[in-house]
């Protein structure tokens, strides 16, 4: 049951990219569903016996984190979000995104450790303590919501921690 070949690069939810120089091809499956999980075979046709590699695809629910840190601040103020990580990831890319969908977090990152500053967002990395901190300044009520701190891994899923930010209206006592 051939799902896609390099002769036809796109077929429904499947897309294949053949990097001939690198001798690597990549298949992307979009709009993943739980029933897409299972065993797949990547193959290369050649004279004689074809080459096959088995790939097992696991599909998980796209949500994050058993615990969520809750933080509060006031409008026009600032807040610092601390994101601890394992020391083995000290040289890896760190980033934060809005929302709670790990699968799209890196593409929608508001700031990364490569950028350091992006508008009201600033990222600093204390490599000795293995904590990166994202400071959000000039807060507005619209900044309230879910955020994911993440460290990019070279193999496997990135590491995530969740934060819920509540920005409150500043109440100034006038006497």
UniProtKB/TrEMBL annotation:
<dbReference type="InterPro" id="IPR050671">
    <property type="entry name" value="CD300_family_receptors"/>
</dbReference>
<keyword id="KW-0472">Membrane</keyword>
<protein>
    <recommendedName>
        <fullName>Immunoglobulin domain-containing protein</fullName>
    </recommendedName>
</protein>
<dbReference type="InterPro" id="IPR013106">
    <property type="entry name" value="Ig_V-set"/>
</dbReference>
<dbReference type="InterPro" id="IPR003599">
    <property type="entry name" value="Ig_sub"/>
</dbReference>
<dbReference type="InterPro" id="IPR013783">
    <property type="entry name" value="Ig-like_fold"/>
</dbReference>
<keyword id="KW-0812">Transmembrane</keyword>
<dbReference type="Pfam" id="PF07686">
    <property type="entry name" value="V-set"/>
</dbReference>
<feature type="domain" description="Immunoglobulin">
    <location>
        <begin position="1"/>
        <end position="60"/>
    </location>
</feature>
<dbReference type="InterPro" id="IPR036179">
    <property type="entry name" value="Ig-like_dom_sf"/>
</dbReference>
<feature type="domain" description="Immunoglobulin">
    <location>
        <begin position="68"/>
        <end position="168"/>
    </location>
</feature>
